[in-house]
């Protein structure tokens, strides 16, 4: 079992799912009937990446709560790793979203719900990172970071709703994303890709945690030498 | 001492302290008024440009930034004078401290708004919204509560960090965007065309939900935020 | 938009994802190598300073 969930096998598993999902999406699923046409195919990775980002932030939320209850720094570490990975995925959501936007609406940026929500999410968790960087003491930093991680994650769905259901001002510019109602084959391809992305996230978390513990060991050794 | 009386005691202390010098209040009011003038020059590019659809935005952006100034100031003062340390030595429920500080900040914000809103109306609002006054006040109050609760919680954290007042805007602004969206939408609607409760319902409920959720979140985490 | 044009955008999107992941792997590999090297050096140093270093007095 341990062998199965080791980092390399996780990456390979993720790779398999992602490649299969991609192939299915391109060759099995039909071209989108709406005006988006072929460019809709970006969706097969764009949406799973978005979902994975949110999962990453969700894990940081749970880790934050667990840290506050136990004061065990390992939760703080997990939380920080997940926020960093979540940011990585969020940036990818935005880049692929912008490319999709250029393909669909011939503009690189539009103030539409998806892009703006993830833009705000990025700012939110960059703020988390900044907060961490200005507190020196370990336990206090972890505490503040945990409080903020909890507040931030609660704000994510709130922001999602705010950008979607509250048109800004009197003349909202509403651009529908058009991905409503998927055919079976589309959904299957999407779902397989999603499993792949989530596995990828787990693999990345593991690898990051390994790096962190390596860093710990090095710091320990330096300390022993009396550095 | 019961929580209620502790609450009143802390609140009274904060209010008296500020009302004695009125430094912070006067600065914040001046800031708000100046911001309005600046907005006029910033946005009126064409002769007779109509800023009606910007009114909600201008108003709330101004209040949010004024609050950031005020929070920085009042918490920095507390920290420098070590009031908070003294307070923490007493057997006060941390949440009571949070509620009292939030209430204090809310009152300051309301005082500023009492002065600023009429002048803003004079400068920027073409139609009379007296008929919609109740709606406007409800939106005002709910948004104020969200801003003050979140602001108080975050200022408590940021004050204990290395970059103090530089950090607060960075952690506060992304979180307050939903409030901004709802409040400016509602306010612009009221200023521009007038709005019944029906059309504002979604935004009002949203603000109510936001306030409720973050009050609960603050209740759960303030112990940790205030530390030790 | 023709399929060729659309395909170019789609390819660009996937290329970006791939590029980011590859970049991440390269950077992580570099981090790990640096850390491993530091660890080896430090471990050697620690051993030297242990009773095994009695010869140095």
Structure write-up:
The complex is a heterotrimer of chains A (227), B (228) and C (57). Chain A is mainly α and 227 residues long. Chain A has 6 helices and no strands. Chain A is 77% helix and 0% strand. In chain A, helix 1 packs antiparallel against helix 6, helix 2 packs across helix 6 (184-225) and helix 3 (73-105) crosses helix 6 (184-225). Chain A is globular. Chain A starts with 6 loop residues before the first helix and ends with a helix. Chain B has one domain (3-226). In chain B, helix 2 crosses helix 5 and helix 3 runs antiparallel to helix 7. The model of chain B has no long low-confidence stretch (mean pLDDT 88). By secondary structure, chain C is mostly helical. Chain C has a domain at 16-49. Chain C is rod-shaped and about 75 Å long. Chain C starts with a helix and ends in an 8-residue tail after the last helix. Mean pLDDT of chain C is 81; it is low at 53-57. The interface between A and B is large, with 34 and 41 residues.
Keywords:
heterotrimer, A: 227 residues, mainly alpha, 6 helices, C: 57 residues, 1 helix, disordered C terminus
Quick structural summary:
Chain A has 227 residues and is an all-alpha fold.
How is this fold's topology laid out?
The complex is a heterotrimer of chains A (227), B (228) and C (57).
Chain A: H1 7-28, H2 43-70, H3 73-105, H4 113-133, H5 138-165, H6 184-225
Chain B: H1 3-21, H2 23-43, H3 55-80, H4 83-89, H5 94-124, H6 133-158, H7 164-192, H8 197-226
Helix pairs in contact in B: 1-5, 2-3, 2-5, 3-5, 3-6, 3-7, 5-6, 6-7, 6-8, 7-8
Chain C: H1 3-49
As a percent range, the share of helical residues of chain A equals over 70%
Structural class of chain C: mainly alpha
Order of helices and strands of chain A: HHHHHH
The tally of helices of chain C reads 1
The stretches of 5 or more residues of chain A where confidence is low (pLDDT under 50) are 169-176
């Amino acid at each position: 079992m341990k062998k199965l969930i080791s980092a390399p096998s996780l990456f390979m598993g993720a790779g398999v799912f992602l490649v299969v999902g991609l192939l299915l999406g391109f060759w099995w699923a039909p071209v989108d009937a709406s005006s988006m046409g072929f460019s809709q195919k970006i969706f097969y990775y764009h949406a799973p990446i978005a979902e994975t980002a949110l999962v990453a932030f969700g894990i940081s939320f749970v880790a934050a709560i667990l840290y506050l209850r136990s004061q065990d720094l390992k939760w703080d570490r997990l939380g920080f790793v997940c926020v960093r990975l979540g940011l990585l995925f969020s940036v990818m959501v935005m880049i692929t979203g912008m490319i999709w936007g250029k393909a669909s609406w011939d503009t690189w940026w539009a103030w539409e719900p998806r892009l703006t929500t993830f833009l705000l999410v990025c700012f939110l968790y960059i703020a988390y990172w900044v907060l961490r960087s200005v507190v020196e003491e370990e336990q206090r930093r972890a505490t503040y970071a945990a409080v903020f991680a909890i507040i931030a994650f609660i704000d994510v769905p709130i922001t999602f709703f705010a950008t979607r259901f509250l048109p800004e001002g009197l003349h909202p510019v509403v651009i529908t994303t058009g991905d409503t109602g998927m055919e079976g084959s589309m959904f299957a391809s999407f779902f397989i890709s999603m499993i792949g992305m989530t596995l990828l996230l787990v693999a990345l978390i593991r690898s990051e945690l390994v790096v962190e513990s390596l860093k710990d060991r090095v710091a320990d050794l330096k300390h022993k030498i009396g550095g | 001492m019961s929580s209620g009386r502790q609450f009143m005691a802390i609140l009274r202390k904060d209010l008296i302290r500020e009302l004695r010098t009125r430094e912070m209040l006067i600065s914040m009011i001046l800031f708000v008024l100046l911001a309005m003038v600046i907005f006029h020059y910033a946005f009126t590019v064409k002769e007779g440009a109509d800023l009606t659809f910007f009114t909600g935005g201008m108003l709330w952006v101004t209040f949010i930034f004024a609050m950031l100034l005020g929070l920085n100031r009042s918490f920095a003062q507390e920290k420098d004078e070590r009031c908070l340390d003294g307070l923490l030595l007493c057997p006060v429920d941390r949440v009571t401290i949070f509620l009292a500080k939030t209430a204090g900040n809310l009152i300051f914000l309301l005082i500023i708004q009492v002065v600023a809103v009429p002048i803003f109306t004079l400068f920027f609002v073409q139609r009379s919204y007296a008929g919609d006054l109740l709606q406007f006040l409800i939106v005002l109050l709910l948004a104020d509560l969200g801003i003050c609760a979140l602001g108080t919680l975050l200022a408590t954290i940021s004050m204990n960090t290395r970059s103090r007042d530089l950090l607060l805007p960075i952690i506060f602004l992304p979180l307050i965007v939903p409030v901004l969206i709802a409040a400016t939408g509602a306010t612009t609607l009221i200023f521009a065309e007038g709005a019944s409760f029906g059309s504002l319902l979604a935004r009002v409920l949203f603000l109510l939900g936001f306030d409720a959720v973050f009050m609960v979140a603050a209740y759960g985490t303030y112990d940790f935020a205030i530390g030790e | 938009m023709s399929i060729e044009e659309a395909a170019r955008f789609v390819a660009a999107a996937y290329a970006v994802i791939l590029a980011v992941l590859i970049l991440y792997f390269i950077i992580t590999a570099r981090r790990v190598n640096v850390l491993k090297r530091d660890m080896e050096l430090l471990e050697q140093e620690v051993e030297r300073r242990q009773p095994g270093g009695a010869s140095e007095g």
